[in-house]
């Protein structure tokens, strides 16, 4: 009897104990559920990175990279705003005046970027790069246009070079060889015109495109060092290197190689006309490869790339000017997670630009242009290989000198002045 009572007490005790434990567990579970619901209902703060860029291939790539990145990082939103090329720089300058620069913006290196660095508008990424950049090592010279006094102010996206694009089909139709010298170029122009073929496509409405001719002619007459020296002393434009180049350009203009509307055409018109088989040649940057290999191109698979006639094999016009930089007032400068995001975005944009979209030349080790997918760009890469190049004059010259140069070049191209006046006006 006593044993039964003892057993009953034990059983009751066990039941009470188990009930208490169950109650505690239910309280914990309920608390966890409430906390989970509270966490779910609480919005995760979203950080927005605003990026400005120019119209073209870089725009599409940035938007693609942004959407992919957002799918992985729900705490970051990326807004990409695009401007037409001809108004982009003025838009940036207006943003400086109104203190409305975006977090990140596309820009050009060398003197253009240096102006912004001197005004303390761009953030030095040197330390952040050491922490967060885990991509391929930049190629030799790739950082020159974004580095000042040992400090780095941006990551290059891709490289470029100047090349002469030739329509193989039209040359074969005219039974002509590609020109190897300046005199052969003038002769080829006359022979093509005699056969009813527009020799060259150009767009002098954007005078920088015509400047490619003069810059290449200058290198046929002298050295790259001469270009850099003249950038700091305009009087050196009176030397034979620049004077003879101006005479050659004047003779080329007088040969009328570009068709009737070259003064009204812009760079897009020029590349489009060439892509439609309306001209035998176009002198332009390697970015044109993407246009002439596009779905609407009538010359795809019919293009050969050569250097400008007589230009030394070891030199050229091009480099690594295109970059993405960070506004010094941006939230990125104070947020390490956003700094990491910047480098990841640049890395992806650069890789896609070269390997998927084919709009630029490699700027980092192990980046490759696929010769089967982008045969024209691949030819440009071979032309640029092992060359020492200087960037466009508006990136080498200071802003005032650059304005004088382009204004005077425009007058020469339109026939308002001759080569003597061109040199006198630039060297003033």
TrEMBL record:
Keywords: Membrane, Transmembrane, Transmembrane helix. The keyword Ion transport does not apply. The keyword Ion transport does not apply. The chain crosses the membrane at residues 6-30. It comes from the Bacteria. This is Extracellular solute-binding protein. InterPro entries: Bact_solute-bd_prot1, SBP. Signal peptide: none annotated. Gene3D superfamilies: Periplasmic binding protein-like II.
């Amino acid at each position: 009897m006593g044993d039964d009572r003892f057993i009953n007490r034990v059983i009751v005790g066990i039941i009470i104990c188990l009930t208490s434990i169950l109650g505690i567990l239910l309280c914990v579970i309920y608390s966890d559920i409430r906390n989970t619901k509270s966490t779910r209902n609480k919005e995760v703060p979203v950080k927005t990175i605003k990026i400005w860029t120019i119209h073209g291939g870089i725009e599409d790539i940035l938007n693609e990279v942004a959407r992919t990145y957002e799918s992985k990082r729900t705490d970051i939103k990326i807004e990409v705003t695009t401007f037409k090329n001809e108004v982009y720089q003025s838009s940036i300058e207006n943003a400086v005046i109104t203190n409305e620069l975006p977090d990140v913006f596309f820009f050009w290196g060398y003197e253009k970027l240096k102006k912004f660095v001197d005004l303390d508008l761009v953030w030095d990424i040197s330390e952040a790069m050491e922490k967060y950049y885990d991509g391929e090592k930049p190629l030799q010279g790739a950082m020159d246009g974004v580095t000042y006094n040992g400090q780095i102010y941006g990551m290059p996206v891709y490289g470029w070079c100047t090349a002469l694009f030739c329509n193989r089909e039209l040359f074969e139709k005219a039974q002509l060889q590609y020109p190897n010298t300046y005199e052969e170029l003038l002769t080829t122009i006359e022979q093509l015109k005699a056969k009813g073929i527009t020799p060259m496509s150009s767009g002098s409405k954007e005078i920088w495109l015509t400047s490619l001719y003069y810059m290449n002619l200058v290198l046929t007459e002298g050295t790259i060092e001469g270009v850099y020296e003249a950038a700091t002393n305009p009087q050196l434009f009176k030397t034979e290197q620049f004077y003879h180049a101006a005479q050659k350009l004047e003779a080329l203009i007088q040969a009328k190689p570009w068709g009737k509307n070259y003064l009204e055409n812009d760079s897009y018109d020029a590349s489009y006309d060439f892509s439609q088989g309306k001209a035998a040649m176009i002198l332009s940057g390697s970015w044109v490869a993407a246009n002439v290999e596009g779905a609407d191109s009538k010359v795809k698979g019919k293009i050969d790339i050569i250097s400008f006639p007589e230009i030394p094999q070891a030199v050229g016009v091009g480099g690594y000017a295109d970059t993405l930089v960070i506004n010094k007032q941006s939230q990125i400068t104070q947020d390490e997670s956003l700094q990491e995001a910047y480098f990841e975005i640049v890395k992806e944009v650069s890789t896609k630009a070269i390997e998927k979209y084919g709009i630029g030349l490699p700027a980092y080790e192990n980046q490759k242009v696929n010769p089967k997918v982008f045969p024209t760009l691949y030819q440009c890469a071979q032309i640029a290989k092992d060359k020492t190049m200087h960037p466009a004059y508006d990136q080498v010259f200071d802003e005032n000198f650059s304005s004088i140069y382009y204004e005077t070049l425009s007058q020469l191209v339109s026939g308002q002045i001759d080569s003597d006046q061109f040199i006198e006006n630039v060297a003033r």
